[in-house]
Amino acid sequence: MSQKNIKKQLENIYKIMLKEYGAQGWWPLTPYGKLASEYHPNDYSYPKIEHQQLEIIFGAILTQNSYFN
User: Fold this and answer.
1) pTM for the whole structure
2) Rounded to whole angstroms, how far apart are CA atoms 43 and 39?
3) How many Cβ atoms are within 10 Å of 68's Cβ, its own excluded?
4) Is 54 helix (H, G, I), strand (E, B) or coil?
5) 3-state SS of the chain: helix, strand, coil percent to 5?
6) Rounded to 5 degrees, what angle do the CA atoms 50, 61, 14 make?
């Protein structure tokens, strides 16, 4: 599968989930130029940059693949 197809597929999944569940606004993101994550309650303008979108995607994948005792 090409990188273009993967991107399109991920964007479609995102749109479906956004339509189904709406904006959640709870995921901590690292603001541009800062080193630490911050929560943005009731500010649904995030993610604002591609880096923050990737932060959410990778964080979700890593969370789902973690095993806790």
Assistant:
1) 0.53
2) 9
3) 3
4) helix
5) 50, 5, 50
6) 50
